[in-house]
């Protein structure tokens, strides 16, 4: 090829390249300058994204802090599937059976979800624990895929379920501490505005706005998980042994009002709250009102002593078991003649209690009940607390007072009943109960601290001490609460066996058995209430709830390092 | 060098510097993104470990572990427990009047 031909070929190639480059430049100019605003916006919008950054909900721990986590957020998986792929490959039955086996679900229900031939997306189950999701993932099921999602996880299932509560699928606390402290726990999600490349990866250098999420605060409860565990075990035993419909118990520190344990049966698994019914979700310790029976007598005795109407050795005629008042008969479980006030409490005489109420008068007795917190919420920092039923004096009949003082015609929660005994144990000062000890932000800032808060002082320190001595006799030989005794500790308390109210009167076969008390009687540290709903066939508080009280107290005093009673005797206190 | 060469060299240098800085910037951006991802994964792993740890520390699990290792634990008898009050501790170890002085001086120092 001659030189001219070479030049021509060179010019042609250069010309083609120049034209190509020119076209490219023109296209660029067109895209960047001549494209109309709408199209430019579409291009930018396709590359730009705004994401709400997930925020982890705060942890809930017991009184020992991070060492014992009771609720936490973990990154779990939503298990999803492509129904059309499964239908075309005839895999629906096999996949449904495999998932049902791994996830403990109903295979037919999964099949129904997957039998949508035109659909490309079906969510089979939400918020699966990562360990379980990994197990499913390992099976490499065709047409099944996984999406990340934050899961509220309760490591111990139904443990402390009524206090902790749960979080619904929208992330809202819906019961217990989760609901009450939702504002602290939920945190604040962050925002990210940025651009992505063709591979849908974020272009960090083009990040526009980045507001990091503010994680939820951590909560420490006043609950001790070891005592709580013991309480729950004992309640399970009681329900099984006495064929009871339910049982509940609370352990409280009398000086501060802190709740050390609170349990209720039946219970439910917090990780599967949707499978539970309202009956199981009810925190009976604060949300179930019942007629307390004889445990309520402590109020009338404390009031009569406080008003100076009687002394412990004052003798009262117990009418040999049957007393007519205002045209209605009042009976004692065992007939007694003349009893001292001290013995009347020990033997739990209805007639003696009613006579004390008459000495006080309805209005005065009512004011004492109010001062002890009856008929009003205790202010516990948990949702769902009932106020109980205490009618105003103007609505009372002639016999109302004489029945209320023995725990009939008045309805209380276990929390209120425990409050009465805690007040007596705490030198007459009624403390506000609380379960949230501290709320800490992630950076350690204290956002909230539960503090002891006195609510009222229904009786003086002197009479509270007197009541402690009288109540301690209940667990001595001849008292109704012998089975509540704890080796090495003097227990003060009272049994309660209440007939359940039915239409038109009281049931003769359905009862509420309870025991409420505190220990050590010389210098009380812990107060405990145990309530058993409809135990059969044995139904008395002393025989059903008393032993349960003893088992719980025996463990709690050691766990909470409460000195034994001889410690106080030796110290001369 | 002609009068045009100097500005061309300056501009070329600036372009090289800008390109260098930009590529460094891109690399750092990528690294930050990667570290952010790593952090997320580590937090997830921490969450999983914490949940396992919480389950392990549950009283029933501890009891089961003790039983498995044939360890029978009992509470000490109350007579074997020595409780020291704050007064006893300070009385035994420190000169209390000195302590009071220290506390007083601390208060004054504030």
What does this structure look like?
The complex is a heterodimer of chains A (573) and B (110). The model of chain A has no long low-confidence stretch (mean pLDDT 90). In chain A, helix 4 crosses helix 5, helix 13 (297-306) packs across helix 15 and helix 13 (297-306) crosses helix 19. Chain A folds into 2 domains: 53-188 and 206-216, Penicillin-binding protein 2a (Domain 2) (Alpha-Beta Complex); 225-270 and 282-571, DD-peptidase/beta-lactamase superfamily (Beta-lactamase), CATH 3.40.710. Chain A is an alpha+beta fold. The longest helix of chain A is centred in the N-terminal third of the chain and has 32 residues, at 3-34. Chain A is elongated. Chain B has 110 residues and is mostly helical. Chain B has one domain (5-109). Helices cover 76% and strands 0% of the residues of chain B. Chain B contains 4 helices and no strands. Chain B has helices spanning 5-56, 59-68, 86-93, 96-109. Mean pLDDT of chain B is 79; it is low at 98-110. Chain A binds chain B through residues 56, 67-70, 72-75, 130-131, 153, 155-156, 159, 201-205, 225-226, 229-230, 488, 558, 563-564, 566-567, and chain B through 25-26, 29-30, 32-33, 43-44, 47-48, 50-51, 53-55, 57-60, 75, 78, 83.
């Amino acid at each position: 090829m001659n030189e001219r031909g070479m030049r021509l070929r060179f010019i042609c190639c250069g010309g083609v390249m120049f034209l190509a480059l020119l076209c490219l430049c023109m296209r660029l100019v067109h895209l960047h300058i001549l494209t109309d605003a709408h199209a430019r916006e579409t291009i930018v919008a396709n590359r730009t994204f705004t994401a709400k950054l997930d925020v982890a909900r705060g942890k809930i721990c017991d009184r020992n802090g991070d060492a014992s986590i009771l609720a936490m957020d973990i990154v779990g998986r939503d298990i999803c599937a492509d129904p059309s792929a499964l239908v075309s490959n005839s895999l629906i039955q096999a996949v449904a059976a495999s998932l049902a086996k791994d996830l403990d679900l109903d295979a037919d229900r999964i099949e129904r979800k997957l039998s949508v031939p035109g659909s490309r997306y079906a969510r089979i189950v939400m918020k699966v624990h990562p360990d379980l999701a990994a197990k499913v993932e390992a099976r490499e099921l065709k047409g099944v895929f996984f999406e990340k999602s934050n899961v509220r996880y309760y490591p111990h299932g139904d443990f402390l379920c009524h206090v902790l509560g749960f979080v619904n699928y929208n992330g809202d606390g819906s019961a217990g501490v989760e609901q009450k402290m939702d504002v602290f726990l939920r945190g604040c999600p962050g925002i990210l505005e940025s651009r992505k490349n063709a591979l849908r990866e974020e272009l960090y250098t083009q990040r526009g706005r980045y507001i990091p999420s503010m994680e939820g605060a951590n909560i420490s409860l006043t609950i001790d998980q070891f005592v709580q565990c013991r309480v729950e075990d004992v309640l399970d035993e009681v329900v099984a042994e006495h064929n009871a419909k339910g049982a509940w118990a609370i352990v409280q520190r009398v000086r501060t009002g802190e709740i050390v344990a609170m349990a209720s049966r039946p219970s439910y698994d917090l990780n599967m709250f949707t499978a539970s019914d309202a009956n199981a979700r009810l925190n009976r310790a604060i949300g179930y009102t019942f007629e307390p029976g004889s445990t309520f007598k402590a109020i009338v005795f404390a009031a009569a002593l406080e008003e100076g109407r009687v002394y412990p050795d004052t003798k009262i005629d117990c009418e040999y078991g049957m007393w007519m008042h205002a045209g209605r008969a009042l009976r004692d479980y065992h007939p007694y003649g003349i009893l001292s006030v001290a013995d009347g409490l020990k033997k739990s005489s209805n007639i003696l209690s009613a006579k004390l109420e008459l000495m006080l008068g309805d209005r005065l007795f009512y004011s004492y009940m109010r001062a002890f917190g009856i008929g009003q919420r205790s202010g516990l920092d948990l949702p769902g607390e009932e106020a109980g039923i205490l009618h105003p004096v103007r609505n009372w009949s002639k016999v109302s007072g004489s029945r209320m003082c023995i725990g009939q015609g008045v309805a209380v929660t276990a929390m209120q009943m425990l409050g009465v005994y805690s007040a007596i144990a705490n030198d007459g000062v009624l403390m506000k109960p609380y379960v949230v000890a501290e709320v800490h932000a992630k950076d350690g800032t204290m956002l909230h601290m539960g503090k002891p808060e006195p609510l009222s002082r229904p009786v003086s320190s002197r009479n509270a001490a007197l009541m402690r001595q009288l109540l301690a006799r209940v667990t001595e030989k001849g008292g109704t609460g012998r089975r509540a005794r704890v080796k090495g500790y003097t227990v003060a308390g009272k049994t309660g066996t209440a007939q359940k109210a039915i239409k038109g009167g009281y049931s003769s076969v359905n009862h509420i058995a309870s025991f409420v008390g505190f220990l050590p009687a010389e210098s009380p540290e812990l107060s405990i209430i145990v309530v058993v709903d409809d135990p059969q066939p044995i139904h008395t508080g002393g025989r059903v709830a008393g032993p349960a009280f003893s088992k719980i107290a025996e463990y709690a005093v050691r766990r909470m390092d409460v000195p034994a009673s001889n410690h106080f005797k030796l110290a001369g206190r | 060098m002609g009068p045009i060469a100097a500005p061309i060299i300056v501009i070329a240098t600036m372009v090289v510097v800008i390109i260098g800085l930009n590529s460094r910037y891109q690399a750092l951006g990528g690294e930050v993104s990667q570290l952010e991802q790593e952090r997320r994964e580590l937090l997830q792993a921490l969450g999983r470990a914490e949940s396992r740890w919480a389950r392990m520390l549950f009283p029933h699990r501890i009891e089961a572990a003790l039983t498995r290792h044939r360890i029978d634990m009992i509470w000490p008898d109350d007579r074997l427990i020595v409780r020291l009050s704050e007064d006893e501790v300070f009385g035994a170890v420190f000169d209390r009047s000195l302590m009071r002085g220290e506390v007083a001086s601390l208060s004054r120092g504030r």
